[in-house]
Amino acid sequence: VKEYLKQIKAHARLNVFNEVFEQDALAAAKNVDARVKAGTAGRLAGMVIGIKDNICYKDHKVTASSRILENFTSIYSSTIVERLLAEDAIIIGRCNCDEFAMGAANENSFFGPVKNFADETRVSGGSSGGSAVAVQAGMCHAAIGTDTGGSVRQPASFCGVVGFKPTYGRISRHGIISYASSFDQVGTLTKSVEDAALLLEIMGGPDEFDGTLSRKELPKAEAHKPDNGKKKIAYLQEAISSPGVDAEVKNTLINAIEKLRADGHTVKPISFEYLDYLVPSYYILAMAEASSNLARYDGVHYGYRSPNATDLISTYKLSRSEGFGKEVKRRIMLGTFVLSAGYYDAYYAKAQKVRKLIRDQTNAILGEYDFLLTPTAPEPAFPIGKKEKDPVVTYLYDIFTVQASLAGLPAISLPRGNNSKGLPLGLQLLAKGFAEEQLLNFSEYFL
Ligand code: GLN
């Protein structure tokens, strides 16, 4: 813990932690130490973990990097925090993120952007940017993030770490601040795939507080081992043919394909019929769900209340106007619009139908192949401030990650070295629902 605290202090300018639980972590380390000596320690004894600042931890602040929750203290712990602590993990602090997990660059945080440790003038990726850099810069052993449309995988690829999102329904969302509930999933940022497997087993599984959880058996961390079998892998042809994908990103994919073939795997190009509809349907649905989930921040129940309010209506209006940032407001407005009586059928209902087509076609591909291989993001980390002004440009960055989210499938971003500017690159591997064990075992091939 002391070593990680030293790293956190040395790299404070990266803006990774919204709060460091220094005293708590030191006290926890003493307790764990005693249990190790007594032979009663849990399976994560001494694993120092950072949690994204949208994960509730009893008696600790949780802000979702928003002004509206700036002084909010959680009165209970999320199921995942309870499960981590029960196995003697040590939680070292809460990591900066995009406000309410909305973003792909960590530039939408009320507390400012997180800087990439590989190049401090560049973004960390988002929305779990703080969690990614915490692992990248050695500020903790592993970090927990959430992935609604790529928020674990994309920052992992920008920061050169492993980012894993399990199947929807694997890990409890109880005590995770909701963004888009039919997509939100807890994920991990780690240096190794083995750690991702261990954390999945510890955090996953049924929980009476989340009715969407599957009862399918969780993969055992002990079963994690490199898989040397021959696989059938599809890759997205458009990732190579599209002018929107960076040349070095393409080369990373091409090199991986050539190596896989040379090693005897079957690798074939596929075209995804609904490629152009991935980003639009994701954003329509995610914004609709967000507008509904964020209705609870009304200046009355909890969180920020405007001191300028004079009656109920002005309490709502001013608290929300002053409490939410620009991107969150944009999404609430667009989400409310697509759900409104006159536009529901044209946008929300249509997007739900498209989601079903996307899910069915993705499952059909994975019926024929073991995995789908794509870049994680079309470009490496970009300079801070470069894309902020055009939200649509940033939304398009999610093209490769939202497919797994729309289909509810497990996916992982694996580091594949650096480009010519020293910026990390990543590839994404997507698997069938609940095939985490196969996904994680085969991921070792790429490391
Ligand atoms: N970039 C996507 C968005 O802004 C994904 C965010 C996430 O996964 N939380 O919605």
TrEMBL record:
Belongs to the amidase family. GatA subfamily. The keyword Protein biosynthesis applies. Pfam families: Amidase. GO terms for molecular function: ATP binding; glutaminyl-tRNA synthase (glutamine-hydrolyzing) activity. It catalyses: L-glutamyl-tRNA(Gln) + L-glutamine + ATP + H2O = L-glutaminyl-tRNA(Gln) + L-glutamate + ADP + phosphate + H(+). The active site is at K52, S127, S151. Heterotrimer of A, B and C subunits. The keyword Ligase applies. GO terms for cellular component: glutamyl-tRNA(Gln) amidotransferase complex. This is Glutamyl-tRNA(Gln) amidotransferase subunit A. Its EC number is 6.3.5.7. InterPro entries: Amidase, Amidase_dom, AS_sf, GatA. Allows the formation of correctly charged Gln-tRNA(Gln) through the transamidation of misacylated Glu-tRNA(Gln) in organisms which lack glutaminyl-tRNA synthetase. The reaction takes place in the presence of glutamine and ATP through an activated gamma-phospho-Glu-tRNA(Gln). GO terms for biological process: translation. Keywords: ATP-binding, Ligase, Nucleotide-binding, Protein biosynthesis. The gene is gatA. Gene3D superfamilies: Amidase signature (AS) domain (3.90.1300.10). Residues 1-440 form the Amidase domain.
